[in-house]
Amino acid sequence: MFPIKTVLALLILATGSLSASDAALQRRLSPEEIDRLASSSGGAGTSGLPAVTTTVLYGDPAKAGLYSIQLRVAPDTVIQAHTHKDARTATVVSGTWYFGYGKKSVPEAVRKLPAGSFYTEPAGDPHFARTGSDGAVLLITGYGPTDTKYLK
User: Fold this and answer.
1) Structure pTM?
2) Bridge-partner residues for 118, per DSSP?
3) Where is the signal peptide, in residue numbers (predicted)?
4) CA separation, residue 84 to residues 55, 103, 115 (Å)
């Protein structure tokens, strides 16, 4: 049998260890804090276009695990048909996003998605998008690793 002091010490260490581990997974960001995070026009799961700025909010899209990214897409940007190897969900945070499914960007396949809209990007399912004169901000979440493969 272990002495009570040893048991209490082990419980405190285990509880402290769990709390530190849980704390590493916790993330709260205000819009101002998001604006101060590093951004790029490339990276895993992004279009790679200069008109699209990507900010990683959580996780690492290039590695296995849950990730969330914010895309800021400039006005009048066209993203040609492409796929991702992971299933993703997206919410239009601001602006208007014109999104369609298919191997070619055709006007009749596009749906206008205003701020507050939600859509999915199933794994391997070709899709395309564009913005109008107001651009758009999107929040995309998936389970990596992700990629972007444009169709020819």
Assistant:
1) 0.79
2) 91
3) 1-20
4) 18, 13, 23
Per-residue pLDDT reduced to its tens digit, 95-117: 999 999 999 999 899 999 999 99
Q: Which residues pair with 79 in a beta bridge?
A: 129
Q: Per the domain annotation, does 13 fall within a domain?
A: no
List the one residue out of 140, 142, 138 whose CA is nearest residue 77.
138
Query: Residue-wise over 14-27: b if at least 16 C-beta within 10 A, else e?
Result: eeeeeeeeeeeeee
If one counts the domains in the chain, the total is 1
User: Which ranges in the chain belong to alpha helices (H)?
Assistant: 4-25, 31-36
Residue 3 inside a domain? The answer is no
Q: Which of 71, 35, 76, 34 is closest to 148 using CA atoms?
A: 71
Does 25 map to a domain? no
What is the C-alpha to C-alpha distance for residues 30 and 142, in angstroms, rounded to an integer? 21
CA dihedral defined by 59, 74, 102, 45, rounded to 10 degrees? -20
How many CA atoms within 13 Å lie on the side-chain side of 57?
20
Q: Supply the CATH number for residue 98's domain.
A: 2.60.120.10
